[in-house]
Known about the structure:
alpha/beta; 304 residues; 9-stranded mixed β-sheet; 4-stranded mixed β-sheet
Amino acid sequence: MIATVTLNPAIDYTVSLADTLRKDAVNRTAAECLTPGGKGINVSVILHRLGVPTVIHGIPAGMTGQMLCHTIADMGIQASWLPLNDGSSNRINMKLADADGITEINGSGITMTAELQDALLRKLQSYGEKDIIVLAGSIPKGADKNLYGNIMAALQKNGVQFAVDAEGESLRCTLRYRPLIIKPNLPELCGLFDAPQITGDEDLYYYAQLLQREGARNVLISLGGDGAFLLTEEGTCFRMEAPKGKLQSTVGAGDSMLAGWLAGYVKGCTAEECLRMGIAAGSATAFAPWLAERSHVEACLQML
């Protein structure tokens, strides 16, 4: 089983304009949609569509949380929620697509209490050696900044493997617990090492090695439209270009890449095949209005 943890879930409100956004003026949408949001949730959606058993763990709150729970249930994805009943609501993230590109405005989200953190740890204790837990996305206000590391430390004895997709210290505090895979994108990698610019495969290899020395087993670096770089725990590196297609949205593409890699991993694929599956899933989402369907991923696989 692959379980995903999304501590700060959201409803994504995506709007498209026919032209460029006009400031200080009324703008009319050409299209709009509401979808579940949050990195771990995105990973589970793709895993589900690829036929990999998954369960979502998250904290729904208020009317937004109710919408989130109903939508996930309607999609047929298993979920184990920890509802927050303090009068707050989960965030709404706006994704604005116009002629200039995509602008994201993300809400700050809920405040996580110590009681909720303890309840989450108790819930995750049921996982063991055959399971993978994906820790993805931002840490809510009120939570321990090292919460992901604390979760991994508490479950170490259970033999659970972890995949981590987080920024800065939220990622770095997990490395000592030897996560199965981490998936920084290029800006996040630059931020981890205070490097103004990382270019070329030699740089990618150098920084991926540094992350391995800190404890990461496999390092997958997403490069947007340029594909991805993978350094395996055996020390083999792969660099693969993404297939060409019409970009519709980058939202969820990195999460889809991680889901694709994990789908390959649990099916016993080689490292190169896992990377190919990851790039296909990430690209398929980038070419789709929302997260990719299985047929989209399979079509992108044929292009690699």
